[in-house]
Amino acid sequence: MRNIRAAAVQFEHAAGDKQANLAKIAHFTQQAADQGAEIIAFPECCITGYWFLRKLPPLELITLAEPVFDGPSSQQLSSLAKEHNITIGAGLVEITEDGTFYNTYVVAMPDGKFVRHRKLHCFISEHLSSGDQYTVFDTPQDCKVGILTCYDNNIIENARMTALAGAEILLAPHQTGGCDSPSPHAMGLVDKALWDNREKDPAAIEAEFKGPKGREWLTRWLPARAHDNGLFLIFSNGVGVDDNEIRTGNAMIIDCYGRIIAETCKAADDMVIADLDASLRPNCTGVRWMKARRPQLYGPLAVSTGSEQDTRKIRFEGRQI
Predict the structure, then answer these.
(1) Which of the residues 85, 92, 95, 153 could staple to 47 if both were Cys, CB 3.0 to 4.6 A apart?
(2) Number of continuous H segments (helices) and E segments (strands) in the chain
């Protein structure tokens, strides 16, 4: 890995309006390229919209979803990547030739190559399937990148497996913060009135975004994924109205020591940019700790305990879908 300038974006998507969302992607890609960024990460399902997906029947999903990589959204990302000489990641609903739907994150590179990650722990809709592969790939920027989408990052084994596959940078696209969580100490709903009044009273909504419904919750665990695995982590997220919830944004870039090196708590579309210092990785804590692993002890990690449940059941248990 060499030094790389990276960008993380938060924006409020328009549910179902792919062209409006792609226009925002084009806008931020231009801004990032003008500032020398070589990799830019956009949020989970930011092209199609996210939280409203849970209500859509298959016939409506069919009209929204696209093939990857031949679909129009993938091709627009590819055109932007080539035009601005930048690697771009953004999320959408994929449909395969056999009619299977996935929550997919597409990465388009300036050399014309594509990579996709199908979310491993997809719960948004009973009609969307979960992926079954980790995603780690080489980029034209001479670095190895991994992808974990939203809930994928919650499972610590996923971050470790991605690191063991050689990832140096982790793209972590989300739609989170402000969630109606079944846990009393994880997030919670943000009052929409605070968002609606954000221009008159930005301090009130930004205090919510910085508190336990947003940044405070994220920083309990997200930097550990970077620190413990020696990864640079690019966290992109939705912000603002997402159906009946308010996303908290909190776009940030975390170095391989788990230090936040760029972030925003603005109640608005925004982007943060940071330089990833490759010289930190060889001797950082996580890389050294992984060298001390004793794999012969870890067999039970791959054995079912009998308590495992479907992610959708866990996420929505006791909550309205």
Answers:
(1) 92
(2) 10, 14
Mean pLDDT confidence for 232-261? 98
CA distance 187 to 178: 6
| Partner residues linked to 88 by β-bridges | 40, 108
Does the pLDDT of residue 271 top 80, yes or no? Answer: yes
The first and second tokens of residue 169, run together, are 């940078």
Q: How would residue 182 be classed by pLDDT, with cut points 50, 70 and 90? A: confident
Dist CA 213 CA 223 (whole Å): 17
Domains of the chain, first to last: 4-293+307-316 (3.60.110.10)
Task: Pull the structure tokens for residue 49.
Answer: 């919209």
- The one-letter amino acid code at 150 reads C
Is-contact 132 146, C-beta < 8 A? no
pLDDT tens digits for range 127-169: 999 999 999 999 999 999 999 999 999 999 999 999 999 999 9
CA atoms within 13 A on the CB side of 184: 0
> Which amino acid is present at 267?
A
Q: Tell me which residues are annotated as active site.
A: 44, 119, 150
Q: How many residues are present in the chain?
A: 321
Tell me what the mean pLDDT of segment 258-287 comes to: 98
